[in-house]
Design brief:
Layout (H helix, E strand, L loop, with lengths): L6 H8 L3 H15 L1 E7 L2 E2 L2 E2 L5 E5 L3 H6 L9 E6 H14 L3 E4 L8 E3 L1 H13 L3
Parallel strand pairs: 4-6
Antiparallel strand pairs: 1-2, 1-5, 3-4, 6-7
Amino acid sequence: MTWEPTDKEIATLTTAMSDTRYEYFIHKVTDFQQVWSLRDNEGWRVVADEANRECVPVWPHEAYARLCATEEFKDSHPEPIPLDVFITRWLPGMTKDHRFAAVFPTPSNKGVVVAPMELRQDLENENGKYE
């Protein structure tokens, strides 16, 4: 099952409050079992938040990730990560590496910075609603 956000949906969400985008991310990635991030020839991209913590940016769809593949990320491309792999391998790895998740950044907002295990809990809680 696939989904394509409409132009109106993209415009609305890229200007929405961070908590709205976070909730949207949780719902969409659990619905479609896929997370998107940016990658270049050297690997997965990371960003720094206001506290200078390394963060892995993640989005619910390629279209949103592509909007942020500009400037310092212009050589990056969106790439999908299966949700089960994200939960079981990425989030524990991010914890081990002392990285955070930057959930659903936009060109004008760095996204919601959340600890990996908190994000895991939110994803698992949402997944549990469908089991």
